[in-house]
Structures are given as C-alpha cells and as structure tokens.
Amino acid sequence: MFAARALAKHARIPRPRTPARALSSSAPRASDALFVHRDTTYNNPKIPFQFSTENLTRAQEIISHYPPQYKKAAVIPLLDLAQRQNKGWTSISVMNYVANLLEMPPMRVYEVATFYTMFNREPIGEHFVQVCTTTPCMLRGAYDILDTVCAHLGGIKPGETTKDGKFTVIEVECQGACSNAPMLVVGDDFYEDLTAETTRKVLDAFKKGDKPKPGPQSGRHTSENSAGLSALTDKPYGPGQHCQPEFA
C-alpha cells in the first residue's frame, strides 16, 4: 500500500501541451524602387550629364542663397532642376554631378534622392500622371479615377509606362487639393473635381499634344462652394461705416 502511494507520488503527471506558435514570414518580392543602385545600360556613371548653360546659371543663383559653408543645403532644388533637364528622372550621373557641383560626398546626395518620392529613380513617360488616393480623394471615388486612367491608357497598371512612352501612371499620397477631390497631377498641374468622363477628356487632350486647362474640371472657380455662396453675401462695409463718430 505504502509502495503504491510512493509510486503515485513520484509518478509524472502529464501537463497540457501548449501548441507551438508558428513563425510567419512574408514572401520575398523584388522591389520596384531599390535604394541600392544597380548599373544598367541606361543608368550608369559612364553616361555623361551636366547642366545646360541656362540651368547652370540658375543653379549658381540658387546656390548663392546659402552661405558658402552651407551650400550643400541647395541639394534638393538642384536635384529637382537636374531631374527636369533629364526628362523627369534622377539618374546616378545626375546625382554624381550635383554632388560634385556642391562639393559634397555623393552618398549624401544618394540619401536625399532615395528618401524623397519626388525624385524618380527610373525613366518616366513624357506625361507623368500621379493619381491621389488618400482618404478625401478615396471617399470621392479616387480608385474609379485611377481605374479610368489605367484603362484609357491601354490597360497599364500603376507604376507602368505606355508602350509609346507618352504616359507613366502612379498612385500617390495627398497632393494638398482635398477640397477639390478627386484629383490627379500631370507634370506640375493639378486637375481636380474629376469624373470618369472629364478624366478621359484630360488624357485625350494630352494625347493630341494639347495642354488642358488646369484646376477644377467641374466648372467651379478654385475651391468655391459648389452650391453657391452661403456666407459673405452682403455688400462689404465701406470706410467709416458703423464706426463711432470720432473714428469715422
């Protein structure tokens, strides 16, 4: 009896087994915007780049805005100027040239060019179409606009360029025209209050080589109330009106 109790006392009581937590990992995907440069036939340091005479004058004027010891602060406007000259994208030769002009390590220029999305690391089409899909635009049908753009340009997807090299389409974050949503940007111009129909008209104009009028495509002026004025409808007070006599 005592032996049985001793055996029971020392017997190993099975513990409930906790299920092991499975490790998860994302599938590897090749990035479409590598931060590490890879030489290609169209983007390598052997391809020469330098400012045109006009842009070099403009660059020197920009640099003059900064103290000599801080001229590297001009890196962003100079990269922008160089990108515009280089058909809308910032190649490794562009970055190296700007670094040499500002007498700063090339790595510092690479850091800027890879941080800001305004600098395109790959060639783009003649017309750079950026469709905003942030919350205000999304609520007003931004994805319908994005789908319209892609379908009207031959079924390309965001991030792609048309076969004729005329259009590149990307999806972007807020462009600061929330009160005129939905909207898109072509080059430096905003096209706002869009519908599928007006979006196609804007794209067709660019296809023909024309430049459609920027701004709201709905007919309203800037960001005015689409239902008409609801405030400040009275004639403004003139000088001296409703003032004490001594101030009239």
Secondary-structure map with pairings?
Layout: H1 2-10, H2 53-63, H3 75-85, H4 92-102, H5 106-115, E1 127-132, H6 135-139, H7 142-152, E2 167-172, E3 184-186, E4 189-192, H8 196-207, E5 215-216
Parallel strand pairs: 1-2, 4-5
Antiparallel strand pairs: 1-3, 3-4
Helix pairs in contact: 3-4, 4-5, 7-8
Overview of this structure, please?
- The chain is α/β, with parallel strands linked by helices.
- Helix content is 32%, strand content 8%.
- It is built from eight helices and five strands, in the order αααααβααβββαβ.
- The chain has helices at 2-10, 53-63, 75-85, 92-102, 106-115, 135-139, 142-152, 196-207; strands at 127-132, 167-172, 184-186, 189-192, 215-216.
- It has a five-stranded mixed sheet with strand order 2-1-3-4-5, with helices on one face.
- Strand 4 (189-192), helix 8 (196-207) and strand 5 form a beta-alpha-beta unit.
- Helix 4 packs across helix 5 and helix 7 packs parallel to helix 8.
- The longest helix is centred in the last third of the chain and has 12 residues, at 196-207.
- The protein is extended and about 85 Å long.
- The protein starts with a helix and ends in a 32-residue tail after the last strand.
- The mean pLDDT is 88.
